[in-house]
Amino acid sequence: MGERKLDSEGCQGIKFKNVTPDIFSCMKKKLQDYGIETSPGNSGILEGNGIVAYFSWDGEANLVIEVQERPLTTYCGQVSGKLRAFLRECHEY
């Protein structure tokens, strides 16, 4: 198992707006397809590929993901970039 870094700088609090119920479901599916398990419901834990994060969606439009752990070889920007790519893909449906 690769080493992981507890995150204390920069990755926490990635915020997304205009996340409808369909987009939220799409994002959870994309995360699962990418190998990241998600808790059921509107809040919980995302875990997989060396990443541990907490997510919270208000049920209407606002999603916050706080990364707690990530692989040492993965930068915060890579994590947020992948999440933003999933969001863009889900907006296209």
Quick rundown:
The chain has two helices and six strands. It is of the alpha+beta class. The N and C termini lie far apart (36 Å).
Protein described:
With 93 residues, this protein is of the alpha+beta class. It has one domain: TATA-Binding Protein (2-Layer Sandwich), CATH 3.30.310. The chain is 31% helix and 32% strand. The chain has two helices and six strands, in the order ββαββββα. Strands 1, 2, 3, 4, 5 and 6 form a six-stranded antiparallel sheet that branches. Helix 1 crosses helix 2. The termini are far apart. The mean pLDDT is 90.
Question: How are the SSEs placed, and which strands pair?
Answer:
Blueprint: E1 4-6, E2 14-16, H1 21-33, E3 37-38, E4 43-48, E5 51-57, E6 63-71, H2 76-91
Antiparallel strand pairs: 1-6, 2-6, 3-4, 4-5, 5-6
Helix pairs in contact: 1-2
State the main characteristics.
93 residues; 6-stranded antiparallel β-sheet; alpha+beta; TATA-Binding Protein
Main sheet, how many strands, which sense, barrel? 6 strands, antiparallel
Number of strands: 6
- CATH fold-level name: TATA-Binding Protein
- What proportion strand? 25-35%
Please give the CATH architecture: 2-Layer Sandwich
Helix content: 25-40%
CATH class (first level) name: Alpha Beta
Structural class assignment: alpha+beta
Order of helices and strands: EEHEEEEH
What is the averaged pLDDT score? 90
Domain count, please report it.
Answer: 1
Low-pLDDT runs of 5+ residues are none
Radius of gyration: 12 Å
End-to-end distance, in Å?
36 Å
How many helices?
A: 2
Shape by Cα distribution: globular
